[in-house]
Q: What sequence folds into this?
């Protein structure tokens, strides 16, 4: 018998071990892991390299209209290409329901957009209009086709839902086996701080951080936990950016509640000082960047397991009139599109700052890049691990490759990177999705349409 592909001699990170091994692939699946595997159509020499599951990016905004009408700069082709160059073989962007839109129409729109993806994909639904029809018919139908998670907002005039609606959504998710994700910030605190700043003539980018105080996140996280616990439903917090928010999640988990959370590279590696630059608009995201003490706290909560996921929150708006500068060359902070790009750098930053600097192990790296996301979002029966029978989704990393980040060298459709000039050690050089080579030694081999929709299973938080 001949395999399709053997990856020979790399350091393979499996769920239970890290060691030298060969990985054989047949018909898009991992067929064997062992020593001296023989006979394949193609062989890749991975000597000196690290062989890990392809990354799974579960928080990114791709070809998505914001509530104010701005379109992200990346579509499913450029977004998936950039994700692949960053070592990912699957992503789960949002399919956003804006008020008045019907869920089946939203899913049909994203199904059409996603045809261009070069890697596997699914979506989380954003629910801004939880009508009876949505709750009773459309969302159960979405679950039935494998879209088993969705996000709600506690802020933004055009997206936020009330606590009553939040409870309805939590109950519906609980009854169907879904997972609710939430953007937790207190809307009133943001509104009042913004009004105060504007009344004082303060409109610079740095005011964005002041207008979204840490207390706004902490209060909303605490309230959302109380709502989820009263509904006996699991809840996942996206982009935790404060120590108080992480502590609230930790406390609920200690009390046995099914509460989960994520943080993002920008909260671990950047601070609000960046907002004070002349191009500070490039660093406006919500929740906002914080400070170095918060970075340390978030690292602690990430490595302690309070926060299970590390996601890019890639929300790409160019630094031009199509994006950040749509309201003019010096837009007031409250009229600047919210979001940072980072889908390609998520894993290189984690490898460089985490593994290479000794903060985390290779197995932690695999858990944070793919394994935990697969479990959280119902994909761990086929993705997120190197194991026989699993999809052959693999990234081969050169742990010694060094690069200086430059927006020009990235593969998204952006004109800047918030990490410009950062020195990175460790880079994915070959990326394989279901046995097909997507990136080979830094060259794109995949094509639009190679990615497929992956139906996901109900939420079952084993070990998270
Ligand atoms: N929330 C996100 O998750 N991404 C971009 C902006 C926002 O508010
Ligand atoms: Zn958000
Ligand atoms: Zn986001």
A:
């Amino acid at each position: 018998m001949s395999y399709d592909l053997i990856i020979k001699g790399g350091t393979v990170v499996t769920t239970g071990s890290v060691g030298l091994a060969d990985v054989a692939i047949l018909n898009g699946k991992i067929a064997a892991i062992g020593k001296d595997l023989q006979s394949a159509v193609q062989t890749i020499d991975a000597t000196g390299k690290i062989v890990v599951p392809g990354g799974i990016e579960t928080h990114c905004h791709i070809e998505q209209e914001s509530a104010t009408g701005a379109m992200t700069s990346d579509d499913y082709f450029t977004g998936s290409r950039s994700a692949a160059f960053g070592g990912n073989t699957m992503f789960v962007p949002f399919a956003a329901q804006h008020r008045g839109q019907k869920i089946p129409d939203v899913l049909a729109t994203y199904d059409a957009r996603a045809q261009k993806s070069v890697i596997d994909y699914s979506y989380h639904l954003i629910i801004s209009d939880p009508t009876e029809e949505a709750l009773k018919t459309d969302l159960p139908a979405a679950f039935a086709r494998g879209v088993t998670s969705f996000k709600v907002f506690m802020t933004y005039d055009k997206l936020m839902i009330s606590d009553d609606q939040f409870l309805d959504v939590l109950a519906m998710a609980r009854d169907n086996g879904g997972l609710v994700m939430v953007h937790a910030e207190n809307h009133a605190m943001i509104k009042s701080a913004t009004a105060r700043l504007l009344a004082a003539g303060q409109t610079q980018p740095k005011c964005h951080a002041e207008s979204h105080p840490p207390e706004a996140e902490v209060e909303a996280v605490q309230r959302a936990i109380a709502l989820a616990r009263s509904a006996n439903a699991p809840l996942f917090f996206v982009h935790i950016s404060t120590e108080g928010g992480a502590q609230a999640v930790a406390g609920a988990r200690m009390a046995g509640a099914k509460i989960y959370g994520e943080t993002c590279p920008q909260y671990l590696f950047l601070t609000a000082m960046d907002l004070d630059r002349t191009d500070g608009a490039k660093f406006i995201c919500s929740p906002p960047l914080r400070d170095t003490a918060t970075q340390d706290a978030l690292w602690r909560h990430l490595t302690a397991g309070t926060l299970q996921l590390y996601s890019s929150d890639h929300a790409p708006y160019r630094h031009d009139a199509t994006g950040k500068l749509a309201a003019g060359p010096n837009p007031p902070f409250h009229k600047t599109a919210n979001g940072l790009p980072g889908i390609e750098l998520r894993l290189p930053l984690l490898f460089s700052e985490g593994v290479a600097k000794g903060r985390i192990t290779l197995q932690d790296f695999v858990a944070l890049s793919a394994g935990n996301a697969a479990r959280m979002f119902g994909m761990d029966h086929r993705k997120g691990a190197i194991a026989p029978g699993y999809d052959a989704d693999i990234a081969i990393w050169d742990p010694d490759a060094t690069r200086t980040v430059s927006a020009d060298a990235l593969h998204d459709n952006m004109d800047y990177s918030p990490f410009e000039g950062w020195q990175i050690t460790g880079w994915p050089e070959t990326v394989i999705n279901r046995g097909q080579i997507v990136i080979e030694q830094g060259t794109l081999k995949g094509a639009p349409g190679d990615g497929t929709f992956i139906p996901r299973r109900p939420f079952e938080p084993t070990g998270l």
